[in-house]
Specification:
The chain is 15% helix and 27% strand. The protein contains six helices and 19 strands. The relative contact order is 0.19.
Length: 401
């Protein structure tokens, strides 16, 4: 889901408490050292020994250009230069404008998405978009997203709207919104690997390849807004983003989620370790450095992200783009999820059918969960959607097989 209002602050990824003297369970975990560079360089060898995967490289898997990416590879991009094995692509600068309350909002740019958060009843909030020609759209319910109790959150596709107005339900307070544009802004260059990037044989699109602006992770002095911390892997949690289905530009939506999480939530990064779109394209999420596999450091420990408030450390979060409340994931998305979770399970020696006790390494809080769980197994939320949650048992069986 796009945001969790009760998520701990980035400076303290887990709630404060007395640290546990006992280390996290390790009977289902195997430590291993893998370099991201080594995996990229040996992609062919790894793929030959792994499950068959589609090619996902700097350009989309179908060979067409991302609607926002310029894949000319000409080395031009606001002073960015390509290193060995890289090309420079350009992506639009993400622009955003924050507002509070229910007063009408107008933006200086075409609005691609509107992120909304509020306190109080999750259901009943509405939004009405204003078209560039001045016409008003119909009121649309925001729902409650996947937020925990006593709060709502939504990321709404706005289709280039010029403005919007919000209507809160009775009892709602603290309405905050963020107008976001991830497709029309000035372009900036990013050095992107030319070869397919893979994690344990499974192809994924790197942060650079979906246009992540790494400056959004940083404070004005260049330090990380959310300094990276790493803990041994324990479990996998599945989410949905509660955004539109049949998304025409999923990479733009990933950039919008990044903006919403990193800037509006002040988490300093996107909340998930990986995201998967309806075409089965896997996107690298939370930044973990350059020495280990995506989401990991060189020792195989997991970087702490922001996807399950109070239970983040050692918990790998994967989000499927779309609303999986009344319909399930596409076959391509389901296959990609199975391959990714299988790779994670092999990497860490995780039993997909196991029940385990998660131990928060920061404060010692415990939670009995399945080794592959859904967001709602951790707290009161609709995530990952009713249909997707019902398919988790089949996911565990496929990973086991």
């Amino acid at each position: 889901m796009p945001a969790l209002p009760t998520e701990p602050s980035p400076a303290a990824p887990e709630a404060a408490g007395s640290p546990s003297s006992a280390p996290p369970p390790s009977s289902h975990r195997v430590k291993s050292r893998f370099s991201r560079r080594g995996v990229i360089g040996a992609a062919g060898a790894v793929a030959a020994a792994a499950v068959v995967t589609p090619i996902v490289s700097a350009a989309p898997a179908d060979g067409t250009k991302d609607s926002a990416a310029d894949t000319t590879g000409n080395g031009q991009g606001n002073g960015v230069s390509a290193g060995p094995g890289e090309s420079v692509e350009t992506f639009p600068e993400t622009r955003s404008q924050a507002a509070t309350g229910e007063r009408p909002v107008e933006a200086d740019f075409p609005i691609g998405h509107v992120g909304v958060r509020w306190d109080g009843p999750a259901d009943g909030a509405e939004i009405r978009l204003r078209r560039p020609d001045g016409g008003q759209g119909a009121w649309k319910p925001l729902g409650g997203g996947c937020s925990p109790a006593n709060g709502g959150v939504a990321l709404v596709a706005a289709g280039g709207a010029a403005g919007y107005v919000l209507k809160a339900a009775k009892g709602v307070t603290g309405v905050r919104s963020l107008a976001i544009d991830t497709t029309k802004g000035p372009r900036h260059g990013v050095a992107v690997p030319k070869d397919t990037t893979r994690v344990r044989g499974v192809a994924y699109r790197s942060r650079a390849a979906w246009g992540a602006d790494e400056s959004k992770r940083l404070n004005p002095d260049g330090t990380e807004n959310s300094p990276r911390v790493y803990y041994p892997f324990q479990t996998v949690t599945v989410h949905h983003t509660d955004t539109v289905n049949a998304d025409p530009d999923p990479a733009a939506t990933v950039r919008a989620i990044y903006e919403f999480h990193a800037i509006d939530n002040d988490w300093g990064d996107i909340g998930y370790h990986f995201l998967i779109d309806a075409d089965g394209v896997i996107y690298e999420g939370r930044y973990s450095g350059d020495e280990g596999l995506p989401a990991h450091d060189a020792d195989g420990d997991l970087v702490t992200a922001f996807h399950v408030g109070g239970f983040n450390s050692g918990n790998l979060g994967i989000a499927l783009l779309g609303d999986l409340t009344e319909e399930g994931p596409t076959a391509a998305a389901s296959d990609a999820l199975t391959r990714l979770v299988s790779a994670v399970a092999r990497l860490h020696g995780l039993d997909p059918a196991a029940e385990l006790t998660y131990v928060n390494p920061v404060n010692g809080v415990t939670k009995d969960v399945r080794s592959i769980s859904g967001h709602r197994d951790w707290m009161e939320t609709d995530c990952p959607g009713d249909v997707m949650y019902g398919e988790l048992a089949a996911l565990r069986e496929r990973v086991t097989a």
